[in-house]
C-alpha cells in the first residue's frame, strides 16, 4: 500500500511539473512537508541525541534565508545563524561555503 501511494504521488508530481513548471513551488512545498513528516525521520525528534540534527538544519536554513535577502542586518543575522548551526553540529560549517 505504501509503495503504491508513493508511486502514485511521484507520478502525480511528475505530471504536474511537466504541465506547469511555473507553479513548481507548490509541488516542492508539498514534497518537503511529506519528507519532513515521514516516519523514517522520527528518530531525531524522539531522541535527545538527534536534536542536534534539527537545530543544525534550522539554523542552516535561517542563515540561507538571511543571506538571500542580503542587507547588512540580515547578513549579520545569517552569520550568527551559521555560528549557531556550527555549534549544534559540525556539518553546520558548510553554510559558509554556500555564502
Helices, strands, pairings?
Elements: H1 2-19, H2 24-36, H3 43-46, H4 51-69, H5 72-88, H6 95-98
Helix pairs in contact: 4-5
Characterise this structure.
With 99 residues, the chain is mainly alpha-helical. Helix content is 76%, strand content 0%. The longest helix is centred in the middle third of the chain and has 19 residues, at 51-69.
What labels would you give this structure?
6 helices; mainly alpha; 99 residues
> Tell me about the biggest sheet?
none
**Which descriptor suits the 3D outline?**
flat
Distance between the termini: 42 Å
Uncertain ranges: none
Strand content: under 5%
Main structural class: mainly alpha
Residues in helices, as a percent range: over 70%
Q: SSE order, as H and E?
A: HHHHHH
Can you summarize this structure?
By secondary structure, the chain is mainly α.
